[in-house]
Amino acid sequence: MPETRELARILPPPERYPYPTWWPYPPEVYRLALLAFEPDGNVASIQARAIRADLPAKDKTRNPRGFSYAGTLFADGRGREFLRAVRGAETLAALEAVVVTEGLTDTIKLAQVACRYGRRWAVLGMVAGSVNAFRSLSDWPTRVPCWVATDGDEAGDRYALQVREALPVGVTVERVDFSSRQEGER
């Protein structure tokens, strides 16, 4: 499903692909990869997620060596269209909302939920430093609400507050909790 939404890819095994020096991590561990986008919708880099549960939390994701992901976002197809439209590069399609998630796996989950239930959501995923990307979206159309679906912990609270503070005043920003509701409901 993530591949059909142009969202994630599985990295090939090393015997099929000679990995470059900027990717020194074991591909048998870090297999699930998402593209990271600049606020204008252009590809900036990738982030890979470990597929092994026995790794400590600090080791579960990897970026290319020397890459800073500050100021980037994960985005599904509608999310990339939204980013390009905000920058004036495309016409904005009708959207129910832009859903902002926290991290790689929540981005994949919400994009799948939107697709499964036919919701017109643009899904954007943030990581540490992504608030800089939201600050550059000053032309966010006020008719498109922002639903912040971050975790209910301290980091999620901080991300939600940063999104509210970064977006223009006229944009409706609402905190939503998809974990305690049925997947298709808001």
Structural summary, described in words:
The protein is an alpha/beta fold. The chain is 22% helix and 23% strand. Strands 5-7-6-8-9 form a 5-stranded mixed β-sheet. A 4-stranded antiparallel β-sheet has the order 1-2-3-4, covered by helices on one side. It is globular, with a radius of gyration of 16 Å. The chain starts with 7 loop residues before the first strand and ends in an 11-residue tail after the last strand. Mean pLDDT is 85; it is low at 181-186.
What key attributes describe this structure?
disordered C terminus; 186 residues; globular; 9 strands; 22% helix; alpha/beta
Report helical residue fraction: 10-25%
Largest sheet, in brief, is: 5 strands, mixed
Strand content: 15-25%
Runs in which pLDDT lies below 50 for 5 or more consecutive residues are 181-186
How large is the count of helical segments?
4
Average the pLDDT over all residues and give the rounded result. 85
Structural class: alpha/beta
What oligomeric assembly is this protein in? Answer: single chain
Biggest sheet strand line-up: 5-7-6-8-9
Mind telling me the C-alpha Rg? 16 Å
The run of helices and strands is EEEEEHEHEHEHE
- Morphology: globular
Q: How many strands appear in the DSSP assignment?
A: 9
Terminal residue distance: 21 Å
